[in-house]
Amino acid sequence: RICHNPHNPRPGLPSSPSNFCKETTTMGDEADYAIETADAGASATIPMEAGQIKKGGFMMIKGHPCKVLNISVSKTGKHGHAKCNFTATDIFTGKKYEDMIPSTHGTTVPIVNRSDWEVIDIDGDELTLMDEAGNQKTDLNLPSYPEGMAEEIRAAWNGGENSVIVTVQAAVGIEQVIAYKKENASS
Q1: Cα distance between residue 163 and residue 152, in whole Å
Q2: Among 99, 63, 69, which residue's Cα sits nearest to residue 83?
């Protein structure tokens, strides 16, 4: 049998169908894998030119979603690009990060969502939350940052005596309680 496969390295020579199948499977797997990785990262962040990021905005630094505290722009030599020097803090841990990127270069910005939930139960460090629509959330723990906030929430809730609303911030697949407020009991 002669193989008329354009991918056959030696045309005119017989090639076994099993070899041909193995080649395509491998190629297909690699292509699929590359596409999946691109999709997975793309949904949590959006590309943006470094010069477009503003103070108080968000950006990714070394794989961490950060809030920009300060931006200083330095103009380099005659033909150089202006460089943006970012100082930012991780939105979940408060750790400080710095990054320098030419203003015309692209960087990534995390998509950050915030939502308010009412505390229904606190079991150890695990929270049971409910939103206005009645949806329950049981996959969050009391926050470890900032220090002491977990105890403040526990004290404000007071074993269910008070109504406490927590703000949950979500970005790049991480969710964390970042703020709380005690609702005044209407009695």
Answers
A1: 13
A2: 99
Give the pair of three-digit tokens for residue 108. Answer: 């990534």
Phi then psi for residue 3, to 5 deg, are: -95, 130
> Residues in the chain, how many?
187
Q: Residue 148 burial by CB count (10 A; 0-12/13-18/19+): exposed, middle or buried?
A: exposed
DSSP bridge pairs for 59: 66
Structure tokens at 42: 């793309």
pLDDT of residue 9: 52
Question: What average pLDDT is seen over the chain?
Answer: 81
- Residue 49, judged by CB atoms within 10 A of its CB (0-12, 13-18, 19+), counts as middle
35: number of CA atoms within 13 Å, CB side? 6
Give dist(CA 158, CA 163) in Å, integer: 9
Q: What is the DSSP letter of 149?
A: H
Quote the pTM value: 0.69
Partners of residue 89 on adjacent β-strands: 67, 96
